[in-house]
Design a protein that fits this description.
This protein is α/β, with parallel strands linked by helices and about 200 residues long. It has one domain: Peptidyl-tRNA hydrolase (Rossmann fold, 3-Layer(aba) Sandwich). It is globular, with a radius of gyration of 15 Å. About 50% of the residues are buried. The C terminus is likely disordered.
């Protein structure tokens, strides 16, 4: 089985660490830890990369360092260099349209206003790539969305997002090993908030 790229989206720099918009970075960090991967910065690819193996498949974990809105520059360069097609790309990103603590797997689709996803779609020339989304919510009523995703969550919401990131890492591994339909059936509908168990079969 060929190489698959798992790209977690986020913003580089300590000021953005642990912000909701960096949930994608958090998920691939968890995967690198579980699979004993070591991050190495590749300036030519504008990314930090960790090569790992899971379920008999070689995975290239990637954290683009272009800032969120230009994520496609890095992901596109990686796909060209490693000759990876959109069918072997998994993108992990935050989703403000999902409540904090929810996980959702999709086989493709639009960006839903997420500029990082939009950039990757532009680089791929298609939206037909799998994505795993971590719900971060939209914040309090009247709160500016940009301030919400680039700020700090309330403790309860942050705990829910941390749990969701861990489950999203499991969803990536399931997707890689068994395919997107299996991952959707097993993980869509999982919520840290109501502690719905994995395997609710809600395709979301």
């Amino acid at each position: 089985m060929g190489l698959k790229i798992v790209a977690g989206l986020g913003n580089p720099g300590t000021e953005y660490a642990r912000t909701p918009h960096n949930a994608g970075f958090g998920v691939v960090d968890l995967l690198a830890g579980r699979l004993h991967g070591a991050w190495r910065r590749q300036s030519r690819m504008k990314a930090s990369l960790a090569r790992v193996r899971a379920e008999g498949t070689d995975l290239l974990l990637a954290k683009p360092e272009t800032f969120m809105n230009l994520s496609g520059e890095s992901v596109g360069a990686l796909m060209r260099y490693y000759d990876v097609t959109p069918a072997d790309l998994v993108v992990v990103a935050d989703d403000a349209d999902l409540p904090a603590g929810r996980v959702r797997v999709r086989p493709g689709g639009g960006a839903g206003g997420h500029r990082g996803l939009l950039s990757v779609i532009g680089a791929c020339g298609t939206d037909a790539f799998a994505r795993v989304r971590v719900g971060v919510g939209r914040g309090a009523a009247g709160e500016d969305l940009v301030e919400h995703v680039l700020g700090r969550l309330a403790p309860a919401e942050e705990a829910a997002v941390q749990q969701a990131m861990s489950v999203a890492a499991e969803a990536v591994l399931c997707l890689v090993a068994q395919g997107v339909d299996a991952a959707m059936n097993r993980f869509n509908g999982w919520s840290a908030v109501d502690a719905a168990p994995v395997g609710t079969n809600e395709r979301g």
